[in-house]
């Protein structure tokens, strides 16, 4: 979610490897100040045991799942991730958990492996929001 951090903080976060970070940011929405905590988990860390991932899911109130439009494998794991999140969060409260799927690297359209339409259709089928963006722009 370096993309989300860049959007909120206006800082560019370069390649930082496979480390996870928690970023905090104050934001004013409708005159109210809101403190956001963003737990940025690189995909390689999400592949670890389910209990670690479950802790992260219980910690969060909403989710932004980012894939690269140039990497089909990062797109193909999204249905499993969304199902895991919904099972962990919605099973307890019956409330819909906010999940947004974001296709990143829109500026690299010449290397595209996943079409915008595929992203939109997947998000629709999983009842998630959808955006396609470029962290570099």
UniProtKB/TrEMBL annotation:
Entry's Gene Ontology molecular function annotations: G protein activity; GTP binding
Record-given protein name: small monomeric GTPase
Extent of the signal sequence: none
Catalytic activity: GTP + H2O = GDP + phosphate + H(+)
InterPro entries listed in its UniProt record: P-loop_NTPase, Ras-related_GTPase, Small_GTPase
Record SMART domains: RAB, RAS
Gene3D superfamilies given in the database record: P-loop containing nucleotide triphosphate hydrolases
Source taxon at top rank: Eukaryota
E.C. numbers: 3.6.5.2
Enzyme's top EC category: hydrolase
PROSITE patterns xref list: RAB (PS51419), RAS (PS51421)
UniProt-listed SUPFAM superfamilies: P-loop containing nucleoside triphosphate hydrolases
Organism: Melospiza melodia (Song sparrow)
Membrane spanning stretches: none
Swiss-Prot/TrEMBL keywords: GTP-binding, Hydrolase, Nucleotide-binding
UniProt family annotation: Belongs to the small GTPase superfamily. Ras family.
């Amino acid at each position: 979610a370096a993309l989300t951090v860049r959007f909120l903080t206006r800082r560019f976060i370069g390649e930082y490897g496979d480390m996870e970070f928690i970023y905090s940011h104050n934001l004013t929405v409708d005159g109210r100040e809101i403190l956001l905590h963003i737990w940025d988990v690189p995909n390689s860390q999400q592949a670890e045991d389910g209990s670690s991932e479950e802790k992260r899911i219980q910690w969060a109130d909403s989710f932004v799942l980012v894939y690269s439009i140039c990497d089909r494998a990062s797109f193909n794991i999204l249905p499993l991730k969304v199902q895991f999140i919904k099972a962990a969060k919605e099973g307890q409260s019956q409330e819909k958990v906010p999940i947004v799927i974001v296709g990143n690297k829109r500026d690299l359209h010449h290397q595209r492996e996943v079409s915008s339409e595929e992203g939109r259709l997947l998000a629709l089928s999983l009842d998630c929001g959808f955006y396609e963006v470029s962290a570099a722009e």
